[in-house]
Amino acid sequence: MDPLPNPSPLATRLRNTLVRYHGIADGEWRVAKKTKDATVWRKPSEEFNGYLYKAQGVVEDVTNRIVDHIRPGPYRLDWDSLMTSMDILETFEENCCVMRYTTAGQLWNIIAPREFVDFSYTTSYEDGLLTCGISLDYGEVRPNFVRGFNHPCGWFCVPLKDCPNHSLLTGYIQTELRGMLPQSAVDTAMSSTLANFYSDLKKALKS
């Protein structure tokens, strides 16, 4: 088990990585799923033998409220159907923490419940916000869970210029679920999970 990292250099590195992903040319992405709420693309990850996913959709709300629903905190468990528990293990400052969370089984439990320990960081980006995270090898793995690993992930949320009470939400996710899983099942689950994330989030913001 690794000790907790120094948060400041890790936060800077994480932000720079996400900004780089945000600058990847459109032509490098392939559409994986399209719904009325979001489009999901993917490309081979540079971090592991899987995909980096990009999801994007317009959400009808102001940037701060949307990000408050996404980042670690009381809102997330209320609406995210995939997340079954969340504990903040360490808080470095208001916008920076280490959290442990668990996810429900997926695809008729072909994908068993997972546990993650993530470093999370929220910062300003252009006129909006970026909330991002990366998994840490920290803490004992609880029984009945496989420990998954999130390579650099994050959500950019910026107000639409001509309609500031709507925001463009763009996510970059690359999750290594680990355990003995067929890659095709993982790919199906990831695309659907990201599309559902938008529809669930929109319902939560309206309620």
Automatic annotation (TrEMBL):
Domain START: 29-207
PANTHER family with a match to the protein in the record: STAR-RELATED LIPID TRANSFER PROTEIN 4
UniProt GO molecular function: cholesterol binding; cholesterol transfer activity
A biological-process GO annotation: cholesterol transport involved in cholesterol storage
Taxonomic superkingdom: Eukaryota
Protein name: STAR4 protein
SMART domains, per the entry: START
GO cellular component: cytosol; endoplasmic reticulum
